[in-house]
Write a structure and sequence with these properties.
single chain, about 325 residues, alpha/beta, Rossmann fold, GMP Synthetase, Chain A, domain 3, 2 domains, five-stranded parallel sheet, four-stranded mixed sheet, globular, binds xanthosine-5'-monophosphate, GMP synthase activity, GMP synthase [glutamine-hydrolyzing], GMP biosynthesis
Length: about 325
């Protein structure tokens, strides 16, 4: 168990010794690992670090702005934001197969990142937020094989780039990475966020990905997350929570929660008119390791409020359902 201030001092010295006066680039995803790696490396070498943030248009509501505010404005980190939404949407048009979508998103991500980093002629190092479990995971193969995180973690470097890898979190477990992030001044809520898959909303819009669907899903998802955060936790039988460490709200009481867009229309009534619109499924799970998971027994009042808000506030959605499937046999994501 590390003493964080000592750990930071040691890690900073090690990074400085490793890179000297070289330039370093890092692909910022908005996730915890790459964020903590960026904050740590910035602490060590300041402006020798340039972060490249590829916005693939499949992020959560306001996430791009949040990342830029946190790094560029508050921490003074050099960040280049690349708005690649049109490019990603273009390549995803007409593609419905989940693994195909993952491949395309991963491939485009590397392409955009390389094109931009190629312009930073002096970069000699590629920094990554690889953590200890990634090192283990990449040695084996899970259900999704190497596609898990491969595009922003252990994917290997393109030949022509000739960059050396800088991976300052390689020996840390997730909880240590979070503590390190807080000690480096990252906001608690950011560091304790639920995990978000690299392909983002691309695997939460079933079948073909369309910008209109992503916009609807972002708003529905934001309402769900806001209500989970705002609803105080109460014990409900059937849940798996750590009784020594009681959560404050339902966001903390769940391991992962999100909305899924179903490209299916169903009939509804609103005012004196008939509607024929899309369906959103809510998914919330509790798990230790994400290999198995229970669906979260959320209070009915919370589910009711989320459903009312989504249907009233997100025109285009007229039905909300709750996913009550465990893993196994279902997976956490729908694709
Ligand atoms: P499943 O759906 O396999 O998800 O039960 C287990 C965990 O892995 C995440 N996940 C992914 N993360 N790229 C990622 O970076 C992916 O392609 C991917 N697929 C699933 C999922 O969000 C959950 O935390």
């Amino acid at each position: 168990d590390w003493n964080m201030p000592d750990y930071i001092t040691e890690a900073v010295e090690k990074i400085r010794a490793q890179v000297g006066t070289d330039e370093v680039i890092l692909g910022l995803s908005g996730g915890v690992d790459s964020s903590v790696a960026a904050a740590l490396i910035h602490r060590a070498i300041g402006d020798q670090l340039t972060c490249v943030f590829v916005d693939h248009g499949l992020l959560r509501l306001d996430e791009g702005k949040m990342v830029m505010d946190m790094f560029a404005k508050n921490l003074g980190v050099k960040v280049i934001r690349i708005d690649a939404e049109d490019q990603f949407m273009g390549h995803l048009a007409g593609v419905a197969d989940p693994e195909q979508k993952r491949k395309i998103i991963g491939r485009e991500f590397v392409e955009v990142f390389n094109a931009e980093s190629g312009k930073l002629v002096n970069a000699k190092w590629l920094a990554q937020g690889t953590i200890y479990p990634d090192v283990i995971e990449s040695a084996g193969k899970g259900k999704k094989g190497q596609t898990i995180k491969s595009h922003h973690n252990v994917g290997g470097l393109p030949e022509h780039m000739k960059l050396s890898l800088l991976e300052p979190l390689r020996e840390l477990f997730k909880d240590e990475v979070r503590k390190l992030g807080v000690a480096l001044g990252l906001p608690h809520d950011m560091v304790y966020r639920h995990p978000f898959p690299g392909p983002g909303l691309g695997v939460r819009i079933l079948g073909e990905v369309k910008k209109d669907f992503a916009d609807l899903l972002r708003r529905a998802d934001a309402i769900f997350i806001e209500e989970l955060r705002n609803t105080p936790y109460e014990f409900i039988a059937g849940q798996a929570v750590d009784s020594d460490n009681l959560p404050k709200n339902w966001y903390e009481a769940t391991s992962q929660a999100f909305a899924v867009f179903l490209p299916v229309k169903s009939v509804g009534v609103m005012g004196d008119g008939r509607t024929y619109e899309y369906v959103v499924a809510l998914r919330a799970v509790q798990t230790q390791d994400f290999m198995t998971a229970h669906w979260a027994h959320l209070p009915h009042a919370l589910l009711g409020k989320v459903s009312n808000r989504i249907i009233n506030e997100v025109r285009g959605i007229n039905r909300v359902v709750y996913d009550i499937s465990g893993k196994p046999p279902a997976t956490i994501e729908w694709e």
